[in-house]
């Protein structure tokens, strides 16, 4: 478990206010995307999840979308923001909805699902549901040189 | 696991697809590609970078599914004319599929088994069997290809066996089975789905059936003949010269209709028909073949009663002959 300084927030505000590109070699991050099939196996009355390569995927199957990152440079990376559009054939599942921010309008606005609303043409405003989520994102304040991690969300094939 | 902080992104990454919710009850269509690409922005020193991950794609396979319902909820009467039973077959899968349609009149518990005459698909979609318009198929043959969520109506024409009696009930089953394949849910048919994707049997097992109800509506006709003799001497003896009045009562029972009912009776040997004596319900009928129901020939009488529903008032026919 990492902990972060509260000063990161201040530093970022300054960065955003001065969009001057540095000439020095910046830090570098490798980003890798994968999809796994969440195979639910019941064995002796116990339900187990096996994450396997998606050989056969049909509506109703549960998928795990995984994004791995690694700071491949010798410098720390700040304010690492990973944005992952949720493919339209799948719907986010609630189990993990509290570990990241979501958007229901393609990334224009962000928040926790409970804070968001949806207005469909010809319908009144309603609370956003899992299936409305178009994009998820994670914000990681600092990645130390050589550090890596994995971000993931669960979704069901519509 | 990293601890995640709520911060505003310095730069919005590629926007995801907005909307795009599946409009299909069956779910995402077979062959749909699910793509995943992650984007990231970060700062290092005073520079801001944007990077993109590789793109992973997964193709959605075909889920085989079918549902059958009987559209005739109340029992259809079956009598002298065949009954038309209407069923609905829905492709509940996520890819195009056709279904073998099999009608089966032999269902456990039936009081009688109807005879399956015709299997037809409602070609013009009006929900009514139109002979010569709707496509007649061999029992067990395949339907046309149905798109996901597509619905067809199927007609089974069933005839009553002679053994059926009035108000007996029966059921006829229609089964629809995926042409791609059936089996326990999860059974895989490699490459058999649309566009060569794999096909997987869904919860229905790839087959479904429904029962429609029949109730026999038949009529029983009873003819009762009697004779009254009036001899020339005021008695009732069958002597030459005596007049015999024959009376035939047609009694129709049951919930059905006796169609095309015609009563004929031959004159007994040694008698002579008394011209103009034929009556129906007490009203005179002419002897000649004309617009009324009665006709008399040299050998006997014919009265055409037509269609008579069960429970109607009795029809009484009478005529007179003289013993030679």
Give a short summary of the structure:
By secondary structure, chain A is mostly beta strands. Chain A is built from one helix and ten strands; from the N terminus they run αββββββββββ. Chain A has a five-stranded antiparallel β-sheet with strand order 2-1-3-10-5, with no helix packed on it.
What topology emerges from the helices and strands here?
The complex is a heterodimer of chains A (158) and B (324).
Chain A: H1 7-17, E1 29-43, E2 46-52, E3 62-71, E4 77-85, E5 90-92, E6 101-103, E7 117-118, E8 126-127, E9 135-143, E10 148-157
Antiparallel strand pairs in A: 1-2, 1-3, 3-10, 4-9, 5-10, 6-9, 7-8
Chain B: E1 33-36, E2 39-44, E3 47-52, E4 56-59, E5 62-64, E6 66-70, E7 76-78, E8 83-91, E9 99-104, E10 115-121, E11 135-137, E12 151-159, E13 169-178, E14 188-189, E15 199-201, E16 207-216, E17 220-230, E18 243-253, E19 257-266, E20 271-273, E21 279-280, E22 283-284, E23 294-296, E24 300-309, E25 315-323
Parallel strand pairs in B: 5-15, 7-16
Antiparallel strand pairs in B: 1-4, 2-3, 6-8, 8-12, 9-13, 10-11, 10-12, 13-16, 14-15, 17-18, 18-25, 19-24, 20-25, 21-22, 21-25, 23-24
Task: Give a written overview of the molecule.
- The complex is a heterodimer of chains A (158) and B (324).
- With 158 residues, chain A is mainly β.
- In chain A, 7% of the residues lie in helices and 44% in strands.
- Chain A has one helix spanning 7-17; strands at residues 29-43, 46-52, 62-71, 77-85, 90-92, 101-103, 117-118, 126-127, 135-143, 148-157.
- A five-stranded antiparallel beta sheet of chain A has the order 2-1-3-10-5, with no helix packed on it.
- The radius of gyration of chain A is 19 Å and the shape is flat.
- The model of chain A is unreliable at 1-24 (pLDDT under 50).
- Chain B is an all-beta fold and 324 residues long.
- Chain B folds into three domains: 33-62, no CATH class; 63-216, Immunoglobulin-like (Sandwich); 220-323, Sandwich (Immunoglobulin-like), CATH 2.60.40.2430.
- Helix content of chain B is 0%, strand content 47%.
- Chain B contains no helices and 25 strands.
- In chain B, strands 17, 18, 20, 21, 22 and 25 form a six-stranded antiparallel beta sheet that branches. A five-stranded antiparallel beta sheet of chain B has the order 6-8-12-10-11, with no helix packed on it. A four-stranded mixed beta sheet of chain B has the order 7-16-13-9, with no helix packed on it.
- Residues 1-22 of chain B have low confidence and may be disordered.
- The chains are: A mainly beta (158), B mainly beta (324).
- Chains A and B meet through helix 1, strand 1, strand 3, strand 4 and strand 9 of A and strand 1, strand 2, strand 3 and strand 4 of B.
- Strand 4 (77-85) of chain A pairs antiparallel with strand 2 (39-44) of chain B, so a sheet runs across the interface.
């Amino acid at each position: 478990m990492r902990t972060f300084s509260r000063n990161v927030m201040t530093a970022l505000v300054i960065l955003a206010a001065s969009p001057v590109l540095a000439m020095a070699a910046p830090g570098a991050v490798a980003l890798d995307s994968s999809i796994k099939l969440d195979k639910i196996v019941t064995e002796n009355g116990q339900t187990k999840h096996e994450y396997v390569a998606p050989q056969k995927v049909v509506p109703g199957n549960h998928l795990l979308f995984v994004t791995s990152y690694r700071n491949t440079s010798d410098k720390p990376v700040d304010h690492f923001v990973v944005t992952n559009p949720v493919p339209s054939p799948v719907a986010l599942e609630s189990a993990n909805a509290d570990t990241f921010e979501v958007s229901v309008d393609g990334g224009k606005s962000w928040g926790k699902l409970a804070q968001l609303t949806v207005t469909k043409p010809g319908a009144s405003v309603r609370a956003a549901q899992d299936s409305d989520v178009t994009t998820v994102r994670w914000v990681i304040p600092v990645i130390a040189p050589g550090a890596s991690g994995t971000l993931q969300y669960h979704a069901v094939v519509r | 696991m990293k601890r995640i902080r709520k911060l505003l992104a310095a730069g919005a990454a590629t926007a995801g697809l907005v909307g795009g919710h599946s409009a299909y009850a069956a779910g995402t269509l077979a062959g749909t590609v699910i793509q995943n690409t992650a984007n990231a922005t970060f700062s290092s020193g005073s520079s801001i970078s944007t990077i993109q991950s590789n793109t992973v794609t997964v193709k959605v396979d075909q889920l085989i599914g079918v549902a059958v319902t009987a559209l005739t909820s109340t029992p259809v009467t079956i009598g002298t004319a065949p009954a038309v039973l209407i069923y609905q077959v829905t492709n509940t899968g996520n890819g195009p599929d056709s279904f073998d349609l099999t009608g089966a009149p032999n269902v456990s518990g039936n009081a009688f088994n109807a005879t399956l005459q015709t299997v037809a698909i409602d070609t013009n979609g009006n929900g009514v069997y139109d002979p010569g318009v709707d496509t007649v198929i061999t029992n067990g043959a395949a339907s046309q290809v149905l798109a996901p969520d597509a619905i067809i109506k199927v007609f089974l024409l069933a005839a009553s066996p002679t053994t059926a009696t009035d108000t007996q009930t029966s059921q006829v089953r229609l089964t629809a089975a995926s042409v791609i394949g059936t089996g326990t849910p999860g059974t895989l048919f490699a490459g058999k789905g649309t566009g060569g994707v794999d096909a997987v049997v869904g919860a229905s097992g790839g087959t479904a059936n429904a029962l429609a109800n029949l109730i026999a509506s038949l009529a029983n006709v009873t003819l009762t003949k009697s004779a009254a003799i009036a001899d020339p001497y005021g008695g009732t003896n069958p002597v030459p010269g005596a007049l015999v009045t024959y009376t035939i009562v047609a009694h129709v029972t049951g919930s059905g209709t006796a169609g095309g009912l015609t009563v004929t009776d031959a004159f007994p040997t040694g008698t002579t028909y008394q011209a103009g004596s034929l009556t129906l319900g007490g009203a005179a009928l002419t002897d000649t073949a004309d617009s009324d129901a009665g006709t008399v020939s040299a050998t006997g009488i014919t009265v055409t009663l037509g269609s008579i529903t069960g429970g109607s008032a009795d029809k009484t026919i009478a005529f007179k002959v003289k013993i030679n």
